[in-house]
Amino acid sequence: MRRSLWTVLALVAILWAVSSNCEAKNINEDAGTSGAQLLKIGVGAKAVGMGESYVAAADDVYAAYWNPAGLSHVETSQLGFMHNEWFEGIRYEFLGYVHPIGDLGTLAGSVSYVSMGDLDKTDENGKEMGTFHPYDILMALSFGKRLNQSVSLGVNAKFLREQIDEENAQAFAVDIGGLYFVPGSSLVLGANVQHMGTKMKFVTESFSLPMNLKLGAAYAMIDGALTLAVDVNQPVDNDMNMGLGIDYKIMGIMSLRAGYTYALGGNDLGTASGLRAGVGVAITDYKLDYAFVPYGELGQAHRISLLASF
To answer: How many CB atoms lie within 10 A of CB 123?
Structure first.
């Protein structure tokens, strides 16, 4: 127990050192060249509070985003809901359901909705013409299958629609993920290729989806009470980035989480924007989680998620 505590303290010290020495960088020249930015917003306050390092730790309904292979380790039906109070008045809602189907695998479905609020509408001369309400909606069907005691695979099929005033665009995409449980160890390795799909076309201009390669590892100790995790991401439209995180369960009821995300060369929004923190409470078959995420000068984001097992 004492050794594990020192491990946690050491990781926290590393996270603090990284956050204290990383400086803001110049924005990547490819940033903003992809469409469907909704696809980059992580779901589930637990995962986000752990520094968004969840590709190898995913084992609940929110695994549909981080790694669909993790769905295969859900043992009962689950219903999950998340509200994300993002910066600048943007709100993100997620609703997901997962259902094991015996030896065949595990099925899941989810809907995500992002509201941009009401924006002022003007003509080419700057004359006001009322307001409009842009939004994104994403629907996904997911499947996870445990091949054996060590290997699990999963896939997502997704449909995305974006609406801006009277114009809209659609796209189809898939994710393919896998998990490897190292025999004789509590180490888990994960991988997920996200957002492979068609382009989104607004009027005459088309945009590619923000495809991302996600790799990571998770290690559990103290009979599963403490989890250490790390993720590495290589998006097509930005620099490589990584996340480090911890999750510590107290008496199986409360969880404390912390993490840091870092883009190689420095975070676009400054050092503090990489910090993550969260807390969770579990009562019988219900789990309530909260995560806090700063975005520098843009403001802060607050995620609240609820998970019910039945």
So the answer is: 8
Q: Which of 103, 87, 210 is nearest to 160 (CA)?
A: 210
The total number of structural domains that make up the chain: 1
Query: For the segment 196-225, what is each residue's pLDDT rounded down to a tens digit?
Result: 999 988 777 888 899 999 999 999 998 889
Return the beta strands (E) in the chain as ranges: 78-85, 91-100, 106-115, 119-122, 128-132, 135-146, 151-164, 167-181, 187-197, 200-202, 205-207, 212-221, 226-235, 241-250, 254-263, 275-283, 286-294, 300-309
Say if CB 294 and CB 302 are below 8 A apart. no
Q: What is the DSSP string of 34-98?
A: BS-GGGGS---HHHHHTTT--TTT--STTHHHH-GGGGGG--S-EEEEEEEE-GGG-EEEEEEEE
Token digits for 307? 């998970």
Residue 106 tokens, joined: 């595990």
Which domain does 116 fall in, by range?
2-309
Q: How confident is residue 129, by pLDDT bands cut at 50, 70 and 90? A: confident
CATH of the domain at 295: 2.40.160.60
pLDDT, tens only, 230-257: 999 999 888 889 999 999 999 889 999 9
Phi, psi of 236 (to 5 degrees): -80, -15
